[in-house]
Write a structure and sequence with these properties.
The protein has 12 helices and 10 strands. It has 263 residues and is α/β, with parallel strands linked by helices. The protein has one domain: 2-enoyl-CoA Hydratase, Chain A, domain 1. The strands form 2 sheets. Strands 1-2-3-5-7-10 form a 6-stranded mixed beta sheet, with helices on both faces. Strands 4-6-8-9 form a 4-stranded mixed beta sheet. β2, α2 and β3 form a beta-alpha-beta unit. α5 packs parallel to α6. The radius of gyration is 18 Å and the shape is globular. 43% of the residues are buried.
Length: 263
């Protein structure tokens, strides 16, 4: 990363006509969930929650990847580092819960690829729309990891058979399949913004109180999963990240080679 990149925001904010847009803008690492990006996203969500003019938040991205999941360069640095702690399992769990608990709906606008922890971010959103160029994969299993923390918002929303297949194989699937299995609200055939227009128009017409209370109804089951399983899922994720097998998987990924167990 250059000095200029280090000072530029990784999450850009814009507001207008009742919508706050938060744009993940860290193309150098495919919008990975680095400690800094997570902190800036938290700040953007908190500001939107306090803004009386904001009816909803749109979460989108620059570049060809919505979010690549964990920043493996930080994760591979070891659990004792500050960056690894901030962007680690508990940090991710807190971020996902913030999205779910925000009193205003969060809408994912996806036009690119989504991998690993990025699927948890999409799953935490209340509404998620993706275009024909989007693709999705739970790649953790190929790195010696498991989609542990992101299961908190996902497993109550995904088709069980589909979760079994894609968690276990790491296969890539498209937006139409993501909508079929419950990861997306809508797979747009063409322009994503055209597909989003009636959704955002509907959100602009809502009352703040009605919106907040209606969201509570739709997220109650997901929040019960956070209450019940956050500690266990964070511990599982931390244990896997610290394992020799995961270190081999992450190193192989960063070195662009097959891990030792590949057949």
């Amino acid at each position: 990363m250059t000095d200029v990149e280090a000072t530029e925001p990784l999450v850009r904010r814009a507001s207008g006509r009742g919508i706050t847009t938060l744009t993940l803008d860290s193309p150098h690492n495919r919008n990975a969930l680095s400690a800094r990006l997570v902190a800036e996203l938290d700040e953007g969500l908190a500001a939107a929650a306090k803004d009386p003019q904001t009816r909803a938040v749109v979460l989108t991205h620059t570049g060809g990847t919505f979010c690549a999941g964990a920043d493996l360069s930080e994760a591979s640095a070891g659990p004792g580092t500050a960056a690894a702690a901030a962007s680690g399992p508990l940090g991710l769990a807190r971020l996902l819960r913030t999205v779910v608990e925000l009193p205003k709906p969060v809408v994912a606008r996806v036009t690119g690829h989504v991998r690993a922890g990025g699927l948890g971010l999409v799953g935490a959103c209340d509404i998620a729309v993706a275009g024909p160029g989007a693709s999705f994969a739970f790649t953790e299993v190929r790195l010696g990891l498991a989609p542990a923390v992101i299961s908190l918002p996902l497993l109550s929303r995904l088709d069980e058979r589909a979760a079994g297949r894609y968690y276990l194989t790491g296969e890539r699937f498209d937006a139409a399949e993501a909508a079929r299995i419950g990861l997306l609200t809508l797979a747009a055939d063409g322009d994503v913004d055209e597909a989003l227009a009636p959704v955002l128009d509907g959100l602009r017409r809502t009352s703040p109180q009605g919106l907040a209370e209606s969201k509570r109804l739709t997220t109650a089951r997901v929040l019960r999963a956070f209450d019940r399983d956050t500690e266990a899922m964070a511990e599982l994720s931390a244990r896997l990240f610290a394992s020799d097998e995961a270190r081999e998987g992450m190193t192989a990924f960063l070195e662009r080679r097959d891990p030792a167990w590949t057949r």
